[in-house]
Amino acid sequence: MESDSSRKKGLELLSKLAQAHGAPGREAAVRRIFRDELGSVETDRLGNVFFKKTGAALNPCIMVSGHMDEVGFVVQSITHAGLIKFIPVGGWWSHTLLAHRVRILTRDGVEIPGVIGAKPPHFLTDAEREKLIKTDDMFIDVGAATDEEVRKRFGIRPGDSIVPESPFISLHNPDYLLCKAFDNRVGMALTIQSLQMLCEVRHPNTVFGVGTVQEEVGVRGAQTAGQTVNPDAAIVLEGTPADDFPGIPVEERQGAVGRGVQIRVQDPSAIMSPNFVDYALDLAHSHGIPHQVAVRRSGATDARAFQLHKQGVPTIVLGVPARYIHTHNSIIHMDDYLSALRLTMAILENMDSHIFENLIAFS
Ligand SMILES: [Zn+2]
Q: Which of 163, 198, 256, 297 is the most buried (most CB within 10 A)?
């Protein structure tokens, strides 16, 4: 019964968060959801948001965080003909962009729909068909005749942020969910839901739920969030790239959709605390939580900044594998979300000062 209500709440959060507009540096809509869900929250001067839950002890202080931003774009200029030139903000592959819908957020808070224009095949030369078109050569059409109309009537200006248009849907098997921005609204939903659950249980520590800004442009918010919270340990919650599709050898797969929460051991930006990884693995085993272990050849998360705060912060990354991230349409499995939630809660309900001392014991 409890897992039914967790599933329902998780779905509600995922739907709301994934559809919110939150390009790097423009995370207000996600911050509003965090505030609505958790009530009394604080922000720092970069826009990171914090919710503190004190348990039975002040220490250890554990930070549970997700990044609020998603990969998006920014308006660079407007052509005389009223078309919008744009720059990617975060990692995109331009193959995935042509003929896709986007939403431009104006200063007045209005979202203007548009489409990234694509030449029809009728006008393509043989050479053009073979090549990758650069984003610099693309434009967004919002249905206007002149630059003046775009500026005055639509209220669009250079600097306005742009995100994919992509409604949240359950697929034919309703455990599979499809939307933009599961990287990282999955982490935000997990952060919010775990803090809400923590308010109902006893825990031997103090926990900060955190939403960071600007992760997709080089983990910028995480640097100030670490200063603000000054945590003893950190759990980074992420929508991580799934690798269970053709072209990746089966024996190298470590992020299959539907196979459980992903415990990341290492990526080029962070070697996770080995003691913390072992502790998470032990908890996953003892609680029967489906999980998979990942050693990543590429990628980075907020762990990069958190682990280097002050004398060092034992940090782990828990991921929900998401296929096709950094595109308009990514797919996750609800059971993986719930596995990540269970493991996060197991850590938060168990980690007391004695366990924390073991995490930072080096031989
Ligand atoms: Zn991410």
A: 163
Task: Write down the mean pLDDT value for the chain.
Answer: 96
Asked if pLDDT for residue 225 goes beyond 70, the answer is: yes
Domain shared by 62 and 78, yes or no: no
Q: Mark whether 197 and 104 lie in a shared domain.
A: no
Cα of 159 vs centre of ligand 1, distance in Å, is: 23
User: How many A from CA of 93 to the centre of ligand 1?
Assistant: 16
215 is catalytic: yes
Give dist(CA 68, CA 103) in Å, integer: 18
- Phi, psi (5° rounding) for residue 351? -75, 100
**Co-location of 353 and 251 in the same domain:** yes
Q: Model's pTM, two decimal places?
A: 0.96
211 shares its domain with 64: yes
Same domain (yes/no): 290, 339: yes
Which entry of 27, 37, 215, 238 is annotated as an active-site residue? 215
Residue 49, strand partner residues: 43, 211
CA distance 178 to 114: 21
> What integer is the mean pLDDT of 21-36?
97
Cα 298 off chain centre by: 17
